[in-house]
Amino acid sequence: MRVRYLLGVCLVLVAVGSPVPLSATSGGETEYFAVFIEGKKVGHAIQSRVVAGGKVTTTEKVNMTLSRGNIPVTIDMTETSIETTDGEPLGFEVVQDLSIIKMKVTGTVNKQGMVNLTTTSMGTVQKSTLEWPSGAVMAEGLRLLTLKKGLKEGTEYSAKIFSPGILQALDTQISIGSKQNVDLLGRIVALTEVMTTYNMPGAGEIKSTNYVDDELCTQKIIMPIAGMQIEMVACAKEFALGKNDVFEVIDKMFLTSPVPLDNLGSAKSITYHLSPTKETGSFIIPSNDNQSIRRLKNGKVIVTVRPVAAPAGAKFPYKGKDKTILEATQPTRFLQSDHKEIIALARRAVGRTKDAAEAVRRIEAFVGKYIKNKDLSVGYASAAEVAASKQGDCSEHAVLAAAMCRAVGIPAQMVVGIAYVDDFAGRQGFGGHAWTQAYVGSKWVGLDAAFKGTGRGGYDAGHIAIAVGNGEPADFFNLATTLGRFKIDKVIVNTEKTQDFKVVF
Prior knowledge:
C8orf32 fold, five-stranded antiparallel sheet, 44% strand, disordered N terminus, 11 helices, alpha+beta, 2 domains, 14-stranded antiparallel sheet
């Protein structure tokens, strides 16, 4: 069991960065920032911009160390964008060290508007392409737009910002506020407030408040995410790179349950009454084959989770033509279902069965036993890394199970959301979690190899999904924008044996 949203925060910080870029006053400059969560220094960020040979190279680096159950987890990401001096995209590079092995992604934008991608991890090279989002800009293009719009109070404009870290473009709205006196670690400086809203379809919004000087250099960023306040403050290099505080995230992981929930495996369905927190307003919970949603006028959401049983007799590999389901059979940079070791593990797990329901059950159980070292020390690993290390927690179980399903032609996705636990590092409640869903017959069936491996039994009605995807960092954007926005007011348990309803307040 583990919580994904703080890792999502790190990914969002790197991927989105500052909407007001570095000053254009020189051909090369570097800015240092201290990163704080809830007032504690947890890391640093470094931004640099170099102009040479008609190209502008902008680099952003974020390093953060968080403690989970007294186990430190360090996340290190570097993102570089290469553009013309007119702000036209040429390429980018992202180096992610979120786990035990680094992953590097490079992209080259050609004249036809296509991006040629190369992903390198564990000596394996993957090639792919994607279409450049029309009108999207990276760091230099955004800087030029910012210069053009200026800092006059009341100015509003929009931009589509391409994030190499999540390989997507974010629709962004920017509003210029007033000049204010801002505390920069004891220095009081007059800065202009810039309010920015990032939007990803289906994921909601993340809002940040930036403070910039007259040369358009960012000096402070405040970004509330998942009920916490993240800050980046410009400072001296020595302080930015200096000692960090210990920030324990376990206490921030859980939503309180009205009362303890027992025997979840016997629950035919569970209905959850969710209400928005006063500070955040609306939130997004999706419907799928395993959960239905009813939205009330007062902003509350009623979620009924009724796990789908895998139908017997369905065959694999998948032979249909549905584009979404076909996409869930393909290898990705985090679900390397074409990796020879993953293929071998999948065949070993499935054996000679031809029944898809039996195959996914075998994969769920196999992954639960295969990952021997079930700890919190891994930030985030791809399926190939997990296959090699046999180490990790819920997300590592989820990516490996999804990749193994795909390796034998069973469509599968990674799911992020919250799940109930009665004892995790001494805590009880609903915490951020990751699991897998596989397409069997005509339904998406939930699989939880992490819970299966610890004796809980696997996926059950104690799960609430928030987003699904291919294990990409963008999936965590959804979780980061949703956690902290709601609380659980009431739980109604429908037990399988008696068909009776138990209402828990």
